[in-house]
């Protein structure tokens, strides 16, 4: 499974390298090609050492290795996306006929590669401790929301390099790009850590960290970003479908948080009773266990007795 993940990661990085090489014609193309190939080789070496380190650590979970892979993957991928985006900004839009096609192809590439790599890293079908079908479906439904959030963030970020009537201010572009960069870097790792921390006893209402973070950082803020681009800057490229998705996600996640709060208010008495019952059972088991007394074996030294008997026999002979 790790080999498949590394192949997918390297394939998406090589496709981004093709964008970088294609954007630098002339003698610069050879230098850019050598640079990106050297960077990919160093990235493979780092992944190799990370895999060896994660395999040698007994306490390192498989999800920890998946989070490290995702972090490095997005870190390198977004750096290349940034250079591609800057090259697009410096190009003359009127002089190119297929500029819109290449930019939308970049958006399609990111929209396909990121979710596929994330799903491969999650690998629900390879979690042996998730034997019940209901638990696997619960995790799949949560990962589906993560994939939709990834597409939402990519859509906001792609609004920077796709064609627009009027360019956004420089500080707005930088803020949008690096805000999406941080979201792509952190939030999928939070989802993977939630799955790994649950272990065998997966409790759905305790996996609420990612829904809370995504509600605030993705659904609310990206809705504000799209609304601001539409109303203030007159951006016609804003996705109305994603805005509707944000509204639906806000309603659904607010209902889930309300149910979670009700469950928290109702659960303490039951939890306390269960804890008291468990503690009483443990006490009864401890009291019923009889102490194990090991037999003591005493080995006496008979050599001194034999020596005294020999001396007592020898004394009458001398007398």
UniProtKB/TrEMBL annotation:
> From what superkingdom does this record's organism come?
Eukaryota
**Family matches, as InterPro entries:** CECR6/TMEM121, TMEM121
Task: Give TM regions.
Answer: 30-52, 64-85, 105-123, 176-195, 207-225
- Transmembrane found in the keyword field: yes
Q: Name one Pfam family in it.
A: CECR6_TMEM121
Q: Where is the signal peptide?
A: 1-18
Keyword tRNA processing assigned to the entry: answer is no
Q: Which UniProt keywords apply?
A: Membrane, Signal, Transmembrane, Transmembrane helix
Any coiled-coil regions, as ranges: none
Q: What family is it from?
A: Belongs to the TMEM121 family.
Question: Under which name does UniProt file this protein?
Answer: Transmembrane protein 121
């Amino acid at each position: 499974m790790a080999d498949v993940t590394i192949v997918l990661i390297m394939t998406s990085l090589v496709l981004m390298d093709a964008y970088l090489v294609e954007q630098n014609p002339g003698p610069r193309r050879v230098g850019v090609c050598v640079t990106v190939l050297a960077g990919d080789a160093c990235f493979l070496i780092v992944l190799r050492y990370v895999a060896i380190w994660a395999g040698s650590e007994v306490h390192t979970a498989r999800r920890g290795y998946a989070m490290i892979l995702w972090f490095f993957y997005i870190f390198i991928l977004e750096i290349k996306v940034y250079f591609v985006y800057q090259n697009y900004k410096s190009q003359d839009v009127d002089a190119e006929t297929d500029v819109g096609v290449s930019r939308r192809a970049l958006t399609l590439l990111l929209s396909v590669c990121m979710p596929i790599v994330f799903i491969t890293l999650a690998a629900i079908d390879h979690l042996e401790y998730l034997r019940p079908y209901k638990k696997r479906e619960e995790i799949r439904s949560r990962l589906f929301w993560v994939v939709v959030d990834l597409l939402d963030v990519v859509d906001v970020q792609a609004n920077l390099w796709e064609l627009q009537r009027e360019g956004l201010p420089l500080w707005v572009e930088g803020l949008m790009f690096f805000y999406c960069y941080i979201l792509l870097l952190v939030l999928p790792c939070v989802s993977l850590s939630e799955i790994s921390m649950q272990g065998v006893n997966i409790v759905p209402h305790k996996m609420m960290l990612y829904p809370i973070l995504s509600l605030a950082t993705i659904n609310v803020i990206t809705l504000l970003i799209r609304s601001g681009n539409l109303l203030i800057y007159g951006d016609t490229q804003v996705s109305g479908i994603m805005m509707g998705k944000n509204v639906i996600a806000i309603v659904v996640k607010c209902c889930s948080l309300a149910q979670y709060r009700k469950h928290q208010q109702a659960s303490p008495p039951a939890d306390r009773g269960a804890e008291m019952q468990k503690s009483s059972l443990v006490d009864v088991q401890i009291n019923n266990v009889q102490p194990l007394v090991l037999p003591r074996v005493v080995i006496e030294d008979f050599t001194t007795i034999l020596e005294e008997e020999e001396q007592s026999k020898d004394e009458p002979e001398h007398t």
